């Protein structure tokens, strides 16, 4: 990828639910290590509103999001979008997926992040 390219990384909560989120984070880290020139938008994980906030899955989501935040802070070409800030009303009735308004909300935040990363200049 070149400095004219953009990479948006969005992952889901399935890996967290089966205790392999660490593997997904490691794959993301490897991708960030290899992608020095492109602008990267990294989207963290939304909470699962079909589960209690204190559930083990939501606790793992919070831990995973902390790792994603640390990664985004480490790489100057990476901006974090916090899907974890999506409110309950932005999710479907069952609470697992974003609804139409939630998808619009997330898309707007990704677009804003892309505009913010436009000024990024890779180091030679």
UniProtKB/TrEMBL annotation:
| Organism for this UniProt entry | Homalodisca liturata
Superkingdom assignment: Eukaryota
Q: How is this protein named in the record?
A: SGNH hydrolase-type esterase domain-containing protein
What the entry lists under InterPro entries is as follows: SGNH_hydro_sf
| Listed CDD domains | SGNH_hydrolase
């Amino acid at each position: 990828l070149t400095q004219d390219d953009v990479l948006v990384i969005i992952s889901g909560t399935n890996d967290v639910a089966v205790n392999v989120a660490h593997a997904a984070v490691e794959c993301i880290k490897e991708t960030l290590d290899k992608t020095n020139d492109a602008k990267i938008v990294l989207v963290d994980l939304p909470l699962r509103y079909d589960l209690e906030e204190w559930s083990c899955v939501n606790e793992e989501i919070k831990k995973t999001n902390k790792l994603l935040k640390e990664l985004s802070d480490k790489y100057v070409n990476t901006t974090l979008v916090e899907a974890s800030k999506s409110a309950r009303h932005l999710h479907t009735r069952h609470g697992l997926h974003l609804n139409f308004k939630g998808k619009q909300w997330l898309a707007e935040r990704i677009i804003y992040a892309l505009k913010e990363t436009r000024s990024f200049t890779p180091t030679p």
